[in-house]
Input
Amino acid sequence: MDEDRRPGFATRAVHGARMPPIDQDAPSVPIFQSSTFRFETSERYADTISFRRPGYTYTRGYGNPTLAAFETLMADLEETESAFSFASGMAAIHTVATTCAGAGDRVVASPELYGGTFSLFRNVLPRYGIEVTFVDAHDHDAVGEALPGAKLFYCETIANPNVTVVDLEALSGLCQNAGVPAAVDNTFASPYLCNPARYGFDFVLHSATKYIGGHSDLIAGVVCCSERDVAGLRNTVIETGATMAPLEAWLCMRGLATLELRMQRHSANALSLATFLEQHPKVDRVHYPGLATHPHHALARRQLPMGFGGMLAFEVEGGVDAGRRFCDGVELAWIAASLGGTQTLVGHAASTTHRQLDAQARRAAGLADGLVRVSVGIEDPDDIAADFARALEKV
Ligand SMILES: *Cc1c(COP(=O)(O)O)cnc(C)c1O
Output
């Protein structure tokens, strides 16, 4: 074979692309749109795939530089040692639950949960032989009684749909006494408003789809925890596969750059809308932790000192029909699933976000039939209030 022969077209097209040398900073981390990474030798491959040396093997579970950059940033913002990224919030929750618990084990969970999480705990985990005990997370005596022997405690910082706030310090103390790992879904608060690891929580989870991404343009999840716990989650994900995609990690980093600004605006807009709704004659009740009438207002002031977030719920006078008619009457706000994006979204909780709960479970979660859930966006607050006033006129 001619040593100097120029490789053929196909070979040059396959092997010719090179990262150009660069010794300058760029404002964003490159997107490593790569499933696999080259090794110099078989020995290095063997050492890297066994985590005996640092490096990248395969993006599913083993790691990817863009995911690593996002994870390092998340760990810093949540004040944990490490973090691990997932394809969705549900993938993150499923992985934490199934890494901590297996057949014959028990999980203790608050019943005030995101609908998908409640359904996972009630319908899916039992199929794996994992028993879930639901205990009111505001009743610390009941939690203390349920914990011994459990493999995981699970709750939400600010819970769907009545925006209740749990006492993170008290709950983590109970978990530490019982030797039970504590996990909290911090999606509604975001790492800007609350850092549950400071109170001793072991796993801080996010649906990054919401405030972290912040623009309703991706699905992603992340868990912030110790390096040891990341290793456990990684071992599960290498086999189960729910990895975040590199583009999503990049979008999440772009979202995080403006998280503080957005959360300040979400919180200010929500407080202003909650105050407006509270005074409206056609509104029976407003649920927002920033209102003095909220049952956990004093706790929320301590635990969420930077703001009370962008989520609120309210009961339109007249029940189910009135709640639905209100949603059909808004024009600026959208009737839509999800939360944490730039535009204001509304939804009738019982028939949409909490459809997985039957009437009994809805009552247990304190969910009124006519409850409207609002993800308050970052629009001009006067325009949001005008839109809601118009829709309430039509009810
Ligand atoms: C949306 C959401 C989830 C699920 O996250 P996905 O990214 O949709 O899988 C979990 N918990 C809370 C509080 C959520 O709002």
Remarks:
- The mean pLDDT is 95.
- The CA atoms of residues 191 and 389 lie 32 Å apart.
